[in-house]
Amino acid sequence: MSQSVLSLKNVTIYQEGKSILTEVNLEVKHGEFLYIIGKTGSGKSSLMKTLYADLPLTEGEGSVVEFNLATLKEDDIPFLRRKIGIVFQDFKLLPDRSVNDNMFFVLKATGWTNNAEMQNKIDEVLAKVGMRDFGKKMPHQLSGGEQQRVAIARALLNDPELILADEPTGNLDPQTSGEVLEVLKSINANGKTIIMATHDYALLMKFPSKTLKCEDAKIFEVVQRTV
């Protein structure tokens, strides 16, 4: 397998016909933890959406987990997303289903059929985020931090090569944000590649890592102390 999980060359990213980021050149190696920072509207989420094919790549070259974004067909998008775990700011848990049933829903949708194997996988990923005893709880019975842990566990179900976390601490208080970052860092320490969009500079200071900034329609690496 290539050492690169993600490569963008001379990419322009468009949202509703307007260019948001231009001349994007980015390579992410397996096992890296990368922050993407920038003001609201600077292009962080548009970049993330391009990586999981919610926005089409129409200009430049791009590959993610060995899928060519420029030539990607609509039928291929589900297969791309099975190799990517996505964590959102607002958790996106199904409110009328228990934690376990949220997990079963994803596994069944991605081709799993054996109930025992599915339950074993669910127990495994919930244990990784410290939520194994919460499987029978409903989302409304969980705190925001607990819901985000479940969302991270859900992103791990299909053993993705890349995890995209789009403002995963945006709705959480500082202490809970730190706990969620510790979970993500531990997952990264076990070999998972993680790209995290955030505007929480305090987290960058507490958990420093390679950082890119979106500003003035460009994306560039920043030295930690200048963030």
Automatic annotation (TrEMBL):
One of its GO terms (cellular component) is plasma membrane. GO terms for molecular function: ATP binding; ATP hydrolysis activity; transmembrane transporter activity. This is Cell division ATP-binding protein FtsE. GO terms for biological process: cell division. Keywords: ATP-binding, Cell cycle, Cell division, Nucleotide-binding. Gene3D superfamilies: P-loop containing nucleotide triphosphate hydrolases. Belongs to the ABC transporter superfamily. Residues 6-227 form the ABC transporter domain. The lineage of its organism: Bacteria, Pseudomonadati, Bacteroidota, Flavobacteriia, Flavobacteriales. PROSITE patterns: ABC_TRANSPORTER_1, ABC_TRANSPORTER_2. InterPro entries: AAA+_ATPase (IPR003593), ABC_transporter-like_ATP-bd (IPR003439), ABC_transporter-like_CS (IPR017871), ABC_transpr_LolD-like (IPR015854), P-loop_NTPase (IPR027417). Part of the ABC transporter FtsEX involved in cellular division. Important for assembly or stability of the septal ring. Transmembrane segments: none annotated.
